[in-house]
Amino acid sequence: MRPLGKSTYEFAFNENNQEFVIAGKLRPRSDAEIEPIVAGMTAALENVRGTFYLNVKRLARLNNIAFRAIVYLMSEVCERRKDLRIEIVTSSVMGWSTRKFLPLAKQHPNIAVTEYDKDFYPGQSFLEDGGFIPILRNQTRLTWRHERNLLARHGLKPDMEMADICCGIGDFAVLVKKEFAPSRIMALDHSRSSLEYARKVAADFGVTGIEYVYGDASEMVIEDNSFDFVTCRHSLQIFDRPELILKELRRICRPGGRIYITNEKNSHCLGEPRGESIQWTYTEVAKLFADFKMDVEFGPKSRRYLDDAGFEDIKVDSFMVTNLDGDPREFADMIQAWENVYAGQMAKDRGDTPEFIERFRQGFQDHIYAALHPKGYAGWPIWAASARKPA
Ligand SMILES: C[S@@+](CC[C@H](N)C(=O)[O-])C[C@H]1O[C@@H](n2cnc3c(N)ncnc32)[C@H](O)[C@@H]1O
Question: Residue 302, Cβ neighbours under 10 Å: how many?
Answer without folding.
Answer: 26
